[in-house]
Design brief:
The complex is a heterodimer of chains A (486) and B (295). With 486 residues, chain A is of the alpha+beta class. Chain A contains three helices and 16 strands. Chain A has a 16-stranded antiparallel barrel. With 295 residues, chain B is an alpha/beta fold. In chain B, strand 5, helix 6 and strand 6 form a beta-alpha-beta unit. Classes of the chains: A alpha+beta (486), B alpha/beta (295). At the A-B interface, helix 1, helix 2 and strand 8 of A face helix 2, helix 3, helix 4, helix 5 and helix 6 of B.
Chain lengths: 486, 295
């Protein structure tokens, strides 16, 4: 472990060192601008005074100035197509050298998509496609595949159709339909989101109802294409099966504090883990920890999933913002007829972006979450190979990640993951044993609407040994797409 | 004792106005005077297309009586999630507290068809219009009307502030035109397509932008074209904003023998340039100075 820590530290230090010149350059450039404007000021003042004097004199002698006219629209100027002469090609090469690498587009990856909504449409419509290509040294790739379809080579990670807009003056509505294919090319559709949200309730309240991402932690509330990595952190995968999504109601309150504080309370039917998840904390239909699920449905209020959350945000400076949160989830699990699960989580997010960032670059952001789960596992006398007793299982884990938008359109990221749990009667269990992972990733945002990502995972699961995995992911968004929350 | 109940115990509260960008904020301050408190979301030096929707903005918007947006989707990258979560019915679209500055403005460069091969074009037209004094006048009148509707008690004050703003603008506009008149018809190059309204108003021609398409970073092949065009058409001035890459502009300028001019399209990037007139004086002055040196 010491080696890993050393390696992590070294990587971080080299990232910081490489980052320093960017800041220095930004400062000198800003100084140049400031001096240029400061130097200009006396000239402007002199010139303005002279002109004011002249204008005043003119005003005295002439009639009062005619008031300004309303402008007339001009047709949009068509730009002439590029005509490249041999000379300009040479110049082009020279410029490439003088400027260094120039990347073609600029926008912010935490908010990679701006909305260009169809004029006259009542809703925004978009298609968002995530394609994935990769392989792993792990024989059973299902253990390390971001979506567990157990496939080497190419796969459609997700094709998402998103529709949102104002329903009427009272509600905002959204629907998000996620299509995936498996290795037989059979398609499954997943209603990721279908909810409405109030727009102007009194007392700073807001209610959301339908199918939606449960307000737990930070990453769980983000769409897959907003992630800075190809795959979810191990702790999210282990405790939530990737995303915790359920039907229910959420009420939230914006506290009247001088800094941002919001309190969320969500009540849901805890049925909603993704079909492809391999770990189920609440009600689902997947075998868990060696046990066969009992047929358990909602009979009383106590069978629902309750998720309280509080989050606060502070602007440390004009250029730095920090957001922290604490969440909990309480609900039934189907390893027994009255067994329950509790999950507790903490999350933190910090972002730096200079005041003169262009198109959202450069920036540095750090995000971390830690969670722990108390799981009451029911007895299963028929379990194979050995009967399993009822017992309380504790699991914990977390991740920390740094994403550095080092130059326009590019981000370099590093994530460290760790999960572990107390030893249960069902052992060994890759869904609960110690596992850690280091993932560097490089992403190129060609525009706000397309990106290509390369990610490497060094992944070690107890009893399975280390594995190396490489993923290439691309994304494109077609059509209108709403801006992302912070 | 009862007579006091009808009287306010403190001074009447100011109208709480939030503007997305500093240019809109500067006009709001002129019109609102002492009757309004103006908060601006975007920083002066910040790229107004890419403001982060920070949670602290939700607190600001939650308390707002009015929100001034550009109204041409310049803030579309961050405003929808903020408005959707501000829990403030007063500033929702369609309400008097939601002020769209572009209303009544004759928009330029409205795309005929939406096609992202042409870069990040704004469906409602070019949103960089506040530095055109004629447009500023339209916005000022719009704001005076909206403020009066939201805060009828101060109607006269807003009217008076508008009258004073307009008379100053008349004098200043004449003065600005005079300052720039010797250079009428001069050819300029900008980094982004953000000078359309200003150039038309004062009689300049923006022959090209360093960006090949709106929102697309300059490529060497496009810059080579710009250089040839500048040489052919004797364009001697390149205008850049604080967040744009000055090095790119300087590289091009060195090849042409042109001058790079800092041309902040938001007030308040440096000291004493925060009010609408200080800012416009700076813009006109910087441009006149550069053109006088390169003539």
């Amino acid at each position: 472990l010491e080696d890993i820590v050393k390696k992590l530290l070294l990587t971080f230090l080299s990232a910081v060192l490489a980052f320093a010149p960017t800041v220095a350059r930004a400062q000198t450039e800003e100084e140049i601008r400031k001096t240029a404007i400061e130097d200009l000021k006396p000239w402007i003042e002199q010139e303005v005074q002279r002109r004011v004097k002249e204008a005043m004199e003119a005003a005295k002698t002439n009639a009062p100035p005619a008031s300004v006219q309303v402008p007339v629209a001009a047709p949009p100027s068509a730009q002439a197509g590029p005509v490249e002469s041999p000379e300009s090609a040479k110049l082009s090469d020279q410029l490439a050298k003088e400027l260094g690498a120039v990347s073609p587009l600029s926008q912010s990856p935490n908010r990679p998509i701006t909305l260009v909504s169809g004029q006259g449409a009542y809703a925004n419509l978009s298609l968002d496609v995530l394609g994935l290509m990769g392989t792993s040294s792990r024989a059973n790739i299902g253990l390390v595949d971001p979506y567990g379809s157990g496939q080497r080579g190419f796969e459609l990670q997700e094709a998402e159709i998103f529709i949102d807009g104002a329903v009427d003056p009272y509600f905002y509505g959204a629907g998000n339909f996620s299509f995936t294919t498996d290795n037989r090319n059979s398609t499954s559709v997943y209603v990721e989101e279908a909810f409405l949200r109030t727009l102007s309730l009194p007392w700073n309240l807001q209610v959301q109802a339908g199918q939606f991402h449960t307000a737990f932690g930070r990453l769980n509330q983000q769409h897959t294409h907003m992630w800075d990595y190809v795959d979810p952190p191990l702790v999210n995968a282990r405790l939530f099966g990737g995303d915790l999504i359920n039907p229910g109601v959420q009420i939230s309150w914006l506290a009247p504090t001088p800094f941002y504080t919001a309190v969320y309370f969500t009540v849901q039917d805890s049925q909603g883990e993704r079909q492809d998840s391999q770990a189920v904390s609440f009600l689902g239909n997947t075998p868990l920890f060696g046990r066969t699920p009992v047929d358990r449905s909602i009979h009383s209020v106590g069978d629902l999933l309750f998720v309280p959350r509080i989050t606060s945000s502070f602007d440390l400076t004009d250029n730095q913002t920090v957001t922290v949160g604490a969440s909990a989830a309480f609900g039934p699990n189907d390893s027994g007829s009255d067994t329950r699960t509790e999950i507790y989580g903490l999350d933190a997010y910090w972002k730096w972006k200079p005041a003169n960032a262009h198109g959202g670059w450069p920036f540095l952001k750090w995000q971390s979450e830690a969670m722990t789960r108390r799981y009451e596992a029911g007895a299963d006398p028929t379990a194979v190979p050995l009967p399993l007793p009822d017992e309380t299982l504790w699991d914990w884990g977390g991740y920390t990640q740094l994403v550095w938008g080092f130059t326009s359109g590019w981000t370099a990221a590093l994530r460290g993951d760790y999960v572990d749990g107390t030893k249960g009667a069902f052992y060994p269990d890759p869904d609960r044993d110690e596992r850690w992972r280091i993932s560097p990733a490089l992403t190129w945002y060609l525009s706000e609407f397309s990106k290509i990502r390369l990610q490497y995972n060094f992944d070690e699961i107890s009893h399975f040994g280390p594995a190396h995995s490489v993923w290439v992911q691309f994304e494109y968004v077609l059509g209108a797409h709403g801006a992302h929350p912070y | 004792m009862f007579c006091c109940l009808g009287l306010p115990l403190t001074a009447p509260a100011k109208l709480n106005v939030v503007a997305t960008t500093p240019d809109l904020g500067s006009i709001a301050r002129e019109i609102g005077g002492d009757q309004v408190a103006v908060t601006v979301l975007a920083k002066p030096t910040e790229d107004p297309h890419f403001v982060d929707p920070k949670p602290s903005f939700l607190v600001t918007l939650n308390k707002a009586d009015a929100l001034i947006e550009d109204g041409a989707d310049l803030d579309v990258g961050y405003m929808p999630p903020l408005l959707g979560n501000a829990r403030n019915g007063k500033i929702m679209p369609g309400k008097p507290g939601n002020i769209q500055a572009a209303e009544g403005v004759q928009m330029r460069e409205v795309p005929g068809a939406l096609d992202r091969r042409f870069g990040d074009v704004h469906p409602k037209g070019n949103p960089h219009f506040v530095d055109d004094p004629v447009v500023a006048r339209i916005i000022a009148e719009h704001l005076a009307e909206s403020f009066a509707q939201l805060d009828p008690r101060s109607r006269d004050a807003y009217k008076a502030n508008l009258a004073s703003f307009e008379s100053t603008l008349d004098v200043k506009f004449k003065q600005w035109e005079e300052m720039l008149s010797p250079y009428k018809g001069a050819k300029l190059v900008t980094y982004h397509k953000d000078m359309t309204y200003f150039a038309e108003r004062f009689g300049f021609e923006v022959i090209d932008t360093l960006e090949p398409l709106p929102g697309v970073s300059p490529s060497p092949s496009h810059l080579a074209e710009v250089i040839e065009k500048m040489k052919a058409e004797h364009a001697k001035v390149i205008l850049v904003q604080p967040f744009q890459n000055r090095k790119t502009a300087e590289t091009v300028a060195n090849h042409v023998g042109a001058k790079v001019v800092d041309f902040p399209l938001q007030p308040g990037t440096t000291k004493a340039t925060g009010t609408y007139f200080q800012w416009m004086d700076l813009l006109i002055g910087s441009l006149a100075h550069a053109l006088s040196e390169t003539k």
